[in-house]
Specification:
- Helix 11 crosses helix 13 and helix 15 packs across helix 17.
- Strand 17 and strand 18 form a beta hairpin.
- The chain is α+β, with helices and mostly antiparallel strands.
- A 6-stranded mixed β-sheet has the order 2-3-1-4-5-6, with helices on both faces. A 6-stranded antiparallel β-barrel has the order 7-8-14-11-10-15.
- About 35% of the residues lie in helices and about 30% in strands.
- The protein has 5 domains: about 170 residues, 3-Layer(aba) Sandwich (Rossmann fold), CATH 3.40.50.300; about 80 residues, Elongation Factor Tu (Ef-tu), domain 3 (Beta Barrel), CATH 2.40.30; about 90 residues, Beta Barrel (Elongation Factor Tu (Ef-tu), domain 3); about 120 residues, Arc Repressor Mutant, subunit A (Orthogonal Bundle); about 120 residues, Arc Repressor Mutant, subunit A.
- The protein is elongated.
């Protein structure tokens, strides 16, 4: 997707028409006044050097100062910019503002077109080109990294060179990452006879498919995709980076507006407070604490109140951390770019990127500022650990981490496996804790248990009472109890928890044998040995092996999978449970489960039957639905 940029009447629309044959001025007012008022769209089918077909989409934006807000609605979804400068007039105010906006939005690729070359002399064109090169120096469109192509849309001169430059620009772009969830900021919504509600926009992340259930944010409104078109052609699916029209069922056109975002159901939600990094333009006036500004991100716009983490005003050309309180909810994620404008007169003053779309409430300003400083330049996985760590002993679910980062749950789950394996994070089912928070929770459970037992004569207490007294979540409490039991500090018998005494459950020689058996099962993982194999290996009589395994089963160190003697270590089962839950709502057959678990059919079938009993999966024919 390539967006036009440039001053009014510099020939953006005529250039698109000469390239594609499409007149992007569709509104009666645009026809009457001869200027672009709102966004226009077109596409160019071309052939790359390797003879592969390539489709370049264009978003034609208005250049008039009064319609910069419409320009901003289109600029958020583009990959590159085509800056248009008239040879008759050269660089003008909206040329400067549009280029500044593109820079603030993080656009790094593009080219410059000098139009109307047939209306000026060679000497004049030479002077204009020199002025343009000087204007672009120090920007992402500087002459040593981006083409400058002189053309005349009217006479056709230079158009072939421009097409070659556009193809080269398109081929240099990287495909957008496919690990993010669906987000389609909507720039148009209208009703089409015989079809109903149609919305359009540029799909910035994810994949859309016909028949898919989707949500509209803000408001968590539900709909279903009836059909998809890309530049007038029906398709079954569409990928990030594509201009798309979507026919929706189940929602009236009056319920959908520019600035809304189409998402997968139960994933992202619109937010009204974000922590950001603001960069001011060099010529802007200082931005004061508690200032009111116009906020633009993708197709959404609203008012925002600026709360600076350091109260002094942000000077021109400088960068600072701030919290923006939005006048209405907008669907945003970390890394999203935005633009800020002042209202009288309406001018662009700065912009920046979102660092956190889900700020923690009631956190001290200095602690929040320090956390954001750490987030600014961290690699992808490091912010994940930081997001888990700031939740403390409450922990963070994989689903919440996916919502905060914008990365799909299944991708998050796979990426977390080595982090949990290395001890960087503690995982239990769907819950994540930092090692420090886990140690704090274990200490809290231990101290509260001691406090309760001192208050009463009986040494045993109920699990529910301990949960109520500590205030910990169920998963955090169970994880902490497992650690204390493993460390031989507590003894768990069904719902009762008592102090650990070595002579209570097993003799000291028994404990040594129990540790050997538990270690053997832990080392084997899911491919657990049979009791007969292990008893022979350890030199134990079968009857003695059964007695010791009964102790381990009672202590929940081992989990029995069925009526037979197949048991696995609880740690291996907890890890597999977490990996399965990541696939919530998806289907699994035996072959896919074998690959996921890394086991043979001998172990896969009992494991699946265990998950069915535990209501983690539900069997439907030959397949399972992950609940």
């Amino acid at each position: 997707m390539i967006g036009t940029a440039g001053h009014i009447d510099h020939g953006k629309t005529a250039l698109i028409r000469a390239l594609t044959g499409i007149d992007t001025d569709r509104l009666p007012e645009e026809k009457r006044r001869g200027i672009t008022v709102d966004l226009g769209f077109a596409s160019l089918n071309a052939v790359a050097q390797d003879k592969s077909p390539i489709q370049i989409g264009f978003i034609d934006v208005p250049g008039h100062v009064l319609f910069v807000r419409n320009m901003l609605a289109g600029a958020g979804g583009i990959d590159a910019v085509m800056l248009v400068i008239s040879a008759e007039e050269g660089v003008k105010p909206q040329t400067e503002e549009h280029l500044a906006i593109c820079t603030l939005l993080g656009i790094e690729h593009g080219l410059t077109v000098i139009t109307k070359t047939d209306a000026v002399s060679e000497a004049w064109l030479k002077d204009v080109r020199r002025d343009v090169e000087q204007f672009l120096s120090g920007t992402f469109l500087r002459a040593d990294r981006a083409a400058i192509v002189p053309v005349s849309a009217h006479a056709g001169t230079g158009m072939e060179e421009l097409r070659h430059a556009l193809v080269a620009l398109a081929m240099s772009q990287q495909l957008r990452a496919m690990d993010a969830g669906v987000r389609l900021p909507l720039d148009r919504a209208f009703a089409m006879k015989g079809f109903g509600t149609v919305v359009t926009g540029t799909l910035i992340t994810g994949v859309l498919k016909t028949g898919q259930a989707v949500g509209i944010e803000p408001g968590a409104r539900n709909a279903r995709i009836r059909g998809i078109q890309v530049h007038g052609h029906a398709v079954d699916s569409v990928y990030a980076g594509t201009r798309v029209a979507v026919n929706l069922a189940g929602i009236d056109v009056a319920e959908v507006h520019r600035g809304d975002t189409l998402v997968e159901t139960s994933t992202f939600a619109a937010v009204d407070a974000i922590d950001v990094e603001i960069t001011m333009l060099p010529k802007a006036s200082p931005l004061k604490h508690r200032a009111r500004v116009h906020f633009h991100a993708f197709t959404a716009e609203c008012m925002a109140s600026v709360s600076l983490y350091e109260y002094e005003a942000v000077n021109p050309g400088s960068t600072r951390l701030a919290r923006l309180k939005l006048s209405k909810p907008v669907t945003l994620l970390p890394g999203d770019r935005f633009v800020l404008r002042h209202g009288s007169p309406m001018t662009t003053v700065g912009g920046g990127r979102v660092l956190d779309a889900y700020p923690m409430p009631r956190v001290k300003r200095e602690a929040c500022r320090a956390w954001l400083e750490g987030m600014k330049n961290a690699s992808r996985e490091k912010p994940w650990a930081m997001r888990v760590d700031r939740r403390g002993i409450a922990g963070l679910s994989i689903a919440s981490l996916s919502r905060e980062t914008g990365i799909r749950e299944d991708i998050v789950g796979k990426t977390l496996v080595p982090m949990i394996g290395s001890g960087e994070l503690i995982g239990s089912g769907d819950l994540l804790l930092s090692p420090e928070a886990f140690d704090t929770a274990v200490l809290q459970v231990s101290r509260e248990f001691e406090r309760i037992t001192k208050e009463r004569a009986g040494p045993a207490i109920k699990r529910s009472e301990l949960k109520s007294r500590t205030g910990l979540g169920t998963e955090v409490l169970e994880l902490s109890l497992s650690r204390l039991e493993k460390d031989e500090k507590l003894r768990i018998q069904d719902e009762l928890i008592a102090p650990f005494r070595r002579n209570d459950a097993a003799s000291n020689p028994d404990r040594i044998r129990l540790t050997e058996i538990a270690s053997a099962f832990e080392h084997a993982g899911l491919a657990a040995p049979s009791p007969e194999e292990l008893s022979a290996k350890l030199g134990l009589a079968p009857q003695e092996m059964r007695r010791l395994m009964t102790v381990l089963l009672r202590e929940k160190m081992l989990i029995r999978l069925g009526d037979d003697s197949l048991c696995v270590h609880q740690g291996a089962l907890v890890e597999l449970t977490r990996r399965v839950r990541v696939l919530k709502g998806q289907e699994l057959d035996v072959a896919a489960f074998k690959q996921l678990a890394g086991v043979s059919r001998k172990y896969a079938i009992p494991l699946l039957e265990y998950f069915d009993r535990e209501r983690i999966t539900r069997k439907q024919g030959d397949r399972r639905i992950v609940l």
